[in-house]
Amino acid sequence: MHRRLVISVAVSALCGAMLAGTAAPASAAAPAAVDCRKVKCVALTFDDGPVADTQRLLRTLNDRNVKATFYVVGKNVQRYPSTVRSTASAGHQIGNHSWDHADLTRLSAAQIKSQFSRADTAIKQATGKKPTTVRAPYGAHNAAVRQAAARPLVHWSVDTLDWKYRDSARIINTVKTQTKPGDIVLLHDIHKTTVNAVPGIIQALKARGFHFVTVDQLFAPAKLPAGKVTYHNRAAYRP
Ligand code: NI
Asked: What's the pTM?
């Protein structure tokens, strides 16, 4: 499914700690008051980053007042803490996508726990908050993974296959034709072709009357319970 990430990291923990102590701008964080029980909503999700190009994606989203959710990899958070901090302070949601994108179903319970906790620590150091949802790399999970996550596992209902087809027009067309109200769209900001597709995705879904929300906003006012099932879209969720 997703390409495995092999990225070496050399960033001091001190850097993240200093950034975490800096006040975030308050004005950008207010979420739009959208009730997804009443209007058409979609949650765009961007996985496996951050990378340098995530800043370009943030400009695209913020210029259009579109909120999204980022399932970040802990190692990359350690490398780009200020990107994760500005993502969160712009009102986007940050989720835990493990420390180094391992297939968690192949690891011991202790290793799984470490994958989540190391990523939590890096995210908390960057943003001041522990993420409230997780997404298993490759969508691969079992009882041990769900138990270690101790939070809802949020996966997706529209798979763009953007990692496979590096073609912006194809990605836009997939999202445009497949997205239904309440869907969660899987994208990867580690691919330039995906970042290039985002203006077209937003334009196409806005034309269909969609509101762009974070994962938490998509399910609100419900709070998802942890550990038993995964969540792919709003329509499939029965409280
Ligand atoms: Ni991934």
From this structure: 0.85
